[in-house]
Design a protein that fits this description.
By secondary structure, the chain is of the alpha/beta class. It has a domain of 297 residues: Alkaline Phosphatase, subunit A, CATH 3.40.720. 35% of the residues lie in helices and 15% in strands. A hairpin with a 2-residue loop joins strand 6 and strand 7. The chain starts with a helix and ends in a 6-residue tail after the last helix. 44% of the residues are buried. The structure holds calcium ion.
């Protein structure tokens, strides 16, 4: 029976094979169309862009019409989280699909081991043209990319020297625009039309010290931004680490952050524009002689406005790229991701910066557009993580996910089909202490309702527990409240299970 069924098909293949041998074109035609069917992947990542500053997430502060397009034409993830909320480590997780203790990049002081398996290498091997633009921040030279044009270290906001496979290139201009120019140049001149592409397009903005571009220096001049409800948090409901950090708007923003001193790295023409923008504002500030809460409020306005001005440039430049995809016809077969390397405190809890497992920095924005696969305007509330990105790229490309990657492809979620065994809890681990902003080392677990955090440095051994339903701002740890004893015990078991699952026995 089986043989009979197969026979006609076998004959057909034999006939095709014979014809293709004869002409030499049939197979190559088939092969080309198979390549064309594989989607391109454009992964856009900003640095320190909190979801609070995206209008598709309901921002009270700014509008991001170009970034919103990705959400309205695709899917917005409302519960996307990172494994280790800081720049370099987040990038290493995304490239490897592995937690920091396995990919070896725990803190910004580490150096990425580029000889290890990465998603870029796997896609390159599978026939993708791979390229990386903008902030790399992993110290070692990129591997797995056919081309790169990257900032050196953090890179400046103005006139960056960038690194390419052919050596260093000195640019004049605003970095957000320079990175985009280089990406568009590559699209126009160097993209191989016979291969799908995997491109990482990473902005430096809106990282500290928030230097706006020439076009954006006067945005928000005429508005007073609403303050976060927790700007004057006194940390009374929490353990020692929240009280001993050094990331307070009130105390830890320096004169350079606040643009009260001349900025480095500007050329004379740029400096002139800056002096015109900040000179009168700084004169008014000096005259006002503010103190106490009024001074904190002024610092909040100054830093938050500069931060938003940097995001305005990111929004405009992502818009340029989306327009190019439309005009070139690439948009219909390109999956576009927008995310940040982590979230951000835009004055919440009186802070700037990130690092904590508290929501503002643990959570990160994620929007994905995939024409004809994602239902436009859809919203996902499952637990997604940056640990899942590599696996997602691979599934989109039709490449098998290696067993040693630790996340899970988001493709089913993008199709609107959440698997019944999708994760119900997430594991987090932050390591950079001692370090900038003095946030203690901690690990923890979050479920839909609760969060358990263990701060574990030798001189600190403290636990926090939050009921996120009753206390979404995480102002009152109820770790010692007998009413929660059972829930705490349950989360401790879950934490132990996850640490075992991910093979994290550090500390
Ligand atoms: Ca960052």
């Amino acid at each position: 029976m089986t043989t009979n069924h197969l026979r006609p098909r076998s004959f057909l293949w034999l006939a095709l094979w014979t014809i293709s041998l004869g002409s030499g074109t049939l197979w190559s035609t088939f092969s080309r169309s198979a390549h064309a069917a594989r989607p391109n992947i454009l992964f856009i990542m900003a640095d320190d862009h909190g979801y609070q500053a995206l209008s598709c997430y309901g921002s009270r502060l700014n509008r991001t019409p170009n970034l919103d397009r990705i959400a309205s034409e695709g899917m917005r993830f409302d519960r996307c989280y990172v494994t280790n909320s800081i720049c370099g480590p987040s990038r290493a997780v995304i490239l490897t699909g592995k937690y920091s203790h396995l990919n070896g990049f725990r803190t910004n002081r580490d150096r990425f081991d580029g000889s290890q398996q990465t998603v870029a290498k796997l896609l390159q091997k599978a026939g993708y043209q791979t390229a990386m633009f903008g902030k790399w921040h992993l110290r070692s030279t990129p591997t797995g990319f056919d081309y790169y044009h990257i900032l050196i270290g953090q890179g400046p906001y103005y006139n960056p020297t960038m690194l390419t496979p052919e050596g260093r290139v000195k640019h004049t201009g605003y970095t957000t625009e320079v990175i985009t120019d280089e990406l568009l140049k590559w699209f126009q001149n160097d993209r191989d039309p016979n291969k799908p592409f995997f491109v990482m397009y990473h902005h430096k903005a809106p990282h500290r010290n928030w230097q706006p571009g020439p076009k954006y220096l006067h945005h928000y001049d005429d508005v007073t931004l609403p303050e976060p409800a927790t700007l004057f948090d006194d940390y009374s409901g929490r353990s020692t680490p929240a009280k001993t950090q050094k990331m307070m708007v009130a105390r830890d923003l320096n004169p350079n952050d606040l643009k009260l001193v001349p900025q480095r790295g500007l050329n004379p023409e740029q400096r002139k524009l800056w002096d015109a923008a900040y000179g009168p504002k700084n004169e008014a500030f000096k005259k006002a002689n503010l103190s106490g809460r009024e001074l904190v409020r002024w610092k909040y306005q100054r830093f938050a406005k500069d931060y938003l001005r940097c995001i305005d440039a990111v929004d405009d430049n992502v818009g340029r790229v989306l327009d190019y995809l439309d005009q070139s016809g690439l948009a219909k077969n390109t999956v576009v991701f927008y995310t940040s390397d982590q979230g951000w405190y835009l004055g919440e809890h009186g802070w700037f910066d990130k690092r904590w497992m508290y929501e503002e920095s643990f959570r990160t924005p994620l929007m994905v557009r995939w024409p004809e696969v994602i239902k436009p305007g859809s919203v996902n509330t499952d637990f997604a993580m940056n640990l899942d990105f590599a696996e997602t790229f691979l599934e989109i490309a039709g490449v098998a996910v290696p067993n040693d990657m630790q996340g899970r492809s988001l493709v089913p979620l993008l199709k609107g089909e959440t698997p019944s065994d999708w994760r119900q809890s997430m594991y987090y681990h932050y390591y950079e202490y001692p370090g900038p902003h003095s946030v203690r080392r901690h690990y923890g677990v979050r479920t839909k309702r609760y969060k358990l955090i263990h701060f574990y440095e030798p001189e600190v051994n403290e636990w926090e527990f939050y009921d996120l339903e009753k206390d979404p701002d995480e102002l009152h740890s109820v770790y010692d409240d007998p009413e929660y004893a059972e829930a705490v015990a349950e989360l401790k078991r879950e934490l132990a299970r996850l640490r075992k699952q991910y093979g994290d026995d550090t500390r």
